[in-house]
Amino acid sequence: MPLIQLNEAKKHYCATAFTLTIKPHDFILISGKNGTGKTTLLELILGFKKPDTGIIKKKTLKINYLPEVAALPNEAVVSHYLLTLAKVKRDPFDDGFLHLFQIPLFKKICELSKGNRQKLAILTTLIGKPDLVVLDEPLSGLDDKSITELLDVLKKKKEAGFSFVVSTHQPERLQTLATQLVIL
Amino acid sequence: MIRLLGQCYLNQKMHLVLFINQLLAIGIIILILTIDVNTTEMILYPKTYQTYFEQMFLQVFTVFNAMFVLFLTMDHDQKFLNPYISYFGRFKVMIGKYVFYSIILSMYALFITMIWIIGLMTLTTIRFVLNWQTYLYFWLDLWFLMTLILTIVRERFKAVAVIIVFVYLLFNLFYQANESFFLYLIPIVQSEFITEPFFVTYKLTYLSFLFTVYLHKTLHETR
After folding, report:
1. Residue B177 class from Cβ within 10 Å (0-12 exposed, 13-18 middle, 19+ buried)?
2. Domain-by-domain residue ranges, chain A?
3. Which residues pair with A21 in a beta bridge?
4. Which residue of A has its CA nearest to B83?
5. How far apart are the first and last CA of chain A?
6. What is the pLDDT along chain A (184 residues), one digit of tens a residue?
7. What angle do CA A41, A173, A177 make, to 5 degrees?
8. For the residues B180-204, what does the mean pLDDT come to?
9. Which residue has the higher pLDDT, B122 or B95?
10. Residue A89: which residues within 8 A CB-CB, separation 6 or more?
11. B212-223 pLDDT tens trace
12. Is some CB atom of chain A closer than 8 A to the CB atom of B156?
């Protein structure tokens, strides 16, 4: 039983009509040139946008989402924010990821560098028990070491049964994890 | 959810707005209660003075509270809500947001009313009789403004919040008591109608209607 099914879903400003089936335990990579509709496709999957034509069949899902530009509450302290988020999502927080990503825990989010903000935003998508994780350009702003660490974490989560839809300009970095590659 | 939203929304700016507003409110209340007051006359005509003070309170705090709601709620639509919406669902997030702002407004309303009553009892010789309707109607205006701003204002059009508050203030300043059509259209507080028994029912119904519009709009909009 698929989680989400897009059938010729299209927005008027986007040239492509999207047809895609997302099943449990999938790791779908979406790639393509700028302006081909990668983010639009993700927004259709998330339900933030409705298609002008075509059909989207979707269950009620818990989706963890990483936006293209990490949107975080700037004044919150990193550790407090993560703990509150874990509590609200009723998830025992795995602090192993914190050591792995080496994010400064006692700084305000606005004081973090771009890379650390991105790492924190990725970390928030791994908290909870989502049916699907949608990542929009997760590698943006990360150095090589962090990318390797991230790949390890994604691999572990995939093995734990998480489903992923990832939009990226560097599909070759994530290709080993992918079960399906969509080029727009 | 509310705790999470509190952590996100209660930033430095919000703290500053709350703190400055409370300080200003205390200052304004002291000014209202101490300027141009004849103590002997106050002892002779306590009811007249209480009515006079309440009218002053309504006039001054109409402007003051409108500004407070504006600063409090104009930044309500934030990008960081998107990941919460995708995980928890729109309904939970939107209700959580409404409840969060309602809690802040209730605390603010209670604080101002408390300071006002303490001021009346300590700075004047009036034996204060609580006229709860005046305050209830007045504080319902806060919810009216808050719900309007939460329903209409979006991140790209924050200036609309200023327009809403501006119209509210204009309406308050230039309202003619005999034009009851406008009262039904925008049932904000008017001293002439405070004693009308239908007013609170109408206002509560109107607020429920606005809340329904808020829910309908936020649950069906694209982000």
Report:
1. exposed
2. 4-183
3. A5
4. A65
5. 25
6. 788 888 888 888 877 888 888 888 888 888 888 888 888 888 888 888 888 888 888 778 888 898 888 888 888 888 888 888 888 888 777 777 677 778 888 888 888 888 888 888 888 888 888 888 999 888 888 888 888 888 888 888 888 888 898 888 888 888 888 888 888 7
7. 75
8. 70
9. B95
10. A127, A128, A129, B87
11. 999 998 888 776
12. no
In our burial notation (b when 16+ CB lie closer than 10 A, e otherwise), range A85-113 reads bbebbeeebeeebbebbebeeeebbeebe
Residue of A nearest to B7 (CA): A76
What are B12-28's pLDDT values in tens digits? Answer: 778 888 888 888 888 88
Contacts of B40 (CB under 8 A, 6+ apart): none
Helix B197-220 with B90-123: angle, nearest 10 deg = 150
Neighbours of B27 (CB within 10 A): 10
Q: How far apart are CA B78 and CA B154, in angstroms?
A: 8
| CA distance readout (Å), B208 to A132, B105, B140, B186, B198 | 36, 17, 12, 14, 15
CA distances from B84 to A77, A130, B5, B79, B142 (A): 18, 12, 10, 10, 27
Residue of B nearest to A62 (CA): B87
Pairing of strands A164-167, A27-31: parallel
Alpha-carbon span A124 to A132, nearest angstrom: 13
Question: Which residues from chain B sit within 8 angstroms of residue A73, using beta carbons?
Answer: 7-9, 11, 78, 80
Given a contact cutoff of 8 angstroms between Cβ atoms, the answer to whether A16 and A10 are in contact is: yes
- Chain B neighbours among A 5-34 (CB < 8 Å)? none
pTM: 0.86
Chain B residue numbers touching A47 (CB-CB < 8 A): 86
As a whole number of angstroms, the distance between CA B169 and CA B67 comes to 10
Q: Looking at residues B190-196, what average pLDDT do you find?
A: 60
Cβ separation of B82 and A89 shorter than 8 Å? Answer: no
Is CATH 3.40.50.300 what the domain over A4-183 is classified as, yes or no? Answer: yes
Alpha helices in A7-48 (DSSP H): 38-46
